[in-house]
Amino acid sequence: MNLFNIFTEIENIDADAVERINYYSRRQMFRLGAKAAAAAVPATFAAIGSAYGQGAVPTVTEVLNFALTLEYLEAEFYRMGLMAPNLIPAQDRAVFMQISKHEDAHVKLLQVALGAAAVMKPNFKFPGDAFTNYQTFMFLAKALEDTGVRAYKGQAQFLTVNKDVLTVALRIHSVEARHAAEVRRLMGIKEWPSDPNEQPTAVYAGEVNTIHGGVNVAQLVANMMPVERVREAFDEPLTKEAVLAIAGPFIG
After folding, report:
1. 169 and 229: one domain?
2. pLDDT digits over 148-159, tens only?
3. Quick check: pTM over 0.85?
4. What is the three-state SS of the chain?
5. Range of the domain at 218
């Protein structure tokens, strides 16, 4: 059983998929190496930020634990939302049940991959009306999903030392992007963000950028489309520091 077969199971997830992940051998997962697996790891976002160090290149283990903490947050958010009485309308419930299954699968996979080096699930705190007001729930779901998409993109550069891990991280990233688009569709807004002033603004910082690969795409297609279309054609990464600032307040 190789890594790619394991992830195929997740991509075709059903009610039993998360449980099946528990049966896969840890030794058949990511080859992090004994030194990395034995390394001390942070238990909260703040600790993860400190572990990276000023200007230091994070290890694969640290990046995966950073991702795992984000996945813990999303999985807990949807778990609590689905448990809340009369919160999610019947017509939307199946969507959030499926997203919840995906987040649980991501958590399980990262836990198995990291083994003993996996961070423990922290305690989370959410706004008081997060699970009583559907509009608040949706707003938070949008913010968390869009943050997750950009967070994976920002950390991908540090996974190039392990192509198998990078491949799986990109597979998770694309599913998170689908989550974000679906939540935005349910809210009745564009599936692709392009407005740097969209709320919360920290999640959409950098959306004014139109230069990609050293090419100013806005100038390249100036006679074909407005700059807004150019901005929404490309998604921006978020740095680790930006993600910490956004997600940190949810941990307590």
Report:
1. no
2. 999 999 999 999
3. no
4. CCHHHHHHHHHCCCCCHHHHHCCCCHHHCCCCCHHHHHCCCCCCHHHHHHHHCCCCCCCHHHHHHHHHHHHHHHHHHHHHHHHCCCCCCHHHHHHHHHHHHHHHHHHHHHHHHHHHHCCCCCCECCCCCCCCCHHHHHHHHHHHHHHHHHHHHHHHHHHCCCHHHHHHHHHHHHHHHHHHHHHHHHHCCCCCCCCCCCCCHHHHCCCCCCEECCEEHHHHCCCCCCHHHHHHCCCCCCCHHHHHHHHHHHEC
5. 194-234
